[in-house]
Amino acid sequence: MLVARTSSHANVRVSLSTAAKEVPYDFRMDTLIEPSSSAGHSQTLKPDTISISNVNLSLGSGAARVHILKDISLRIARAEAVGLIGPSGSGKSTLLMVMAGLERPDSGEVVVDGTAFNALDEDSLARFRGRNVGIVFQSFHLIPTMTALENVAVPLELAGIPDATQRAARELESVGLGERLHHYPTQLSGGEQQRVALARALAPDPAILVADEPTGNLDEATGQQIVDLLFTKHAERGMTLVLVTHDTSLAQRCDRVVRLRSGHIDGPATDRHWVETAE
Fold first, then answer.
1. For the chain, what is the HEC assignment?
2. What is the pLDDT along the chain (279 residues), one digit of tens a residue?
3. Do 183 and 147 meet the contact criterion of CB atoms below 8 Å apart?
4. Other Cβ atoms closer than 10 A to 129
5. CA–CA distance from 101 to each of 60, 66, 110, 247 (Å)?
6. What is d(CA 107, CA 167) in angstroms, rounded to the nearest whole number?
7. Nearest to 69 by CA among 82, 83, 53
8. Total-model pTM
9. 13-14/5-6 β-pairing
């Protein structure tokens, strides 16, 4: 049953089925991004895990150079789940890579778990990323000559984490692959390979888990299993989850949705009830 919601700041009553673009934009509603200074009462707020301020990023060179991210500012709280949606080419995957420290912006500031990326050189940033950011890609990115156990253990060893093999085995067991530790990627199904990738991302116990279209290469049933696993691990570990998706049903499972269009955040970052079709 559709339930109407009334804004406390605007005389508007809107059905949940109403397209977001039809809803008047009241900046004061967006307290999940910027705490309201006019609240008039004390409020307990979670500290930011991710803070992005005035970020710009262009890719390419010469006449082919394209301005991808345009003055993006965004704050994401600790343990929050945020979905990035928008048309293809809107900049959502690039924004995710900026959050993960895989892309350096041309200008602006990125602070993750209290660390300013601008202050880190490439080696320091790689070390920070290895310990604090778990990354799940659409295409798995497993090393084909390594077993599932080795794929999860090697990044831990490179990060200097003790007991890497034992820790990798526990993570694989936690995603249901305890019987597949010594299988190579070619011996695993697509869903199993994505489980290995998720175990690899979770193994360092990161503060942040980012996922770029994690179900894009999977069938619907297998994709649903991976999504359930993502949100289960997010809830169990209390880490921040940021994912890119074209799937609005997946976005609706997040605490908040951020829509990008042409390199800008398109309107307010909203709670999951206001999701409309991303394309």
1. CCCCEECCCCCCEECCCCCHHHCCCCHHHCCCCCCCCCCCCCCCCCCEEEEEEEEEEEECCHHHCEEEEEEEEEEEECCCEEEEECCCCCCHHHHHHHHHCCCCCCEEEEEECCEEHHHCCHHHHHHHHHHHEEEECCCCCCCCCCCHHHHHHHHHHHCCCCCHHHHHHHHHHHCCCCCCCCCCHHHCCHHHHHHHHHHHHHCCCCCEEEEECCCCCCCHHHHHHHHHHHHHHHHHHCCEEEEECCCHHHHCCCCEEEEEECCEECCCCEEHHHCCCCC
2. 444 444 444 443 333 333 333 333 333 333 333 332 333 333 344 567 899 999 999 998 888 899 999 999 999 999 999 999 999 999 999 999 999 999 999 999 999 999 999 999 999 999 999 889 999 998 899 999 999 999 999 989 988 888 999 999 999 999 999 999 999 999 999 999 999 999 999 999 999 999 999 988 888 899 999 999 999 999 999 999 999 998 888 898 999 999 999 999 986 655 544 444 334
3. yes
4. 21
5. 19, 20, 9, 25
6. 38
7. 53
8. 0.78
9. antiparallel
Which residue reads 């299993």 in tokens? 225
Which two tokens mark 107? 């200008």
Q: Scanning the structure block, which residue is given the tokens 């990161």? A: 206
Which single residue is written with the structure tokens 């990008």? 260
In this structure, how many other beta carbons lie within 10 angstroms of the beta carbon of residue 219? Answer: 11
Amino acid 181 reads: L
Cα dihedral 193, 198, 204, 206 in deg (nearest 10): 160
Dig out the tokens for 116 from the structure.
Answer: 């300013």
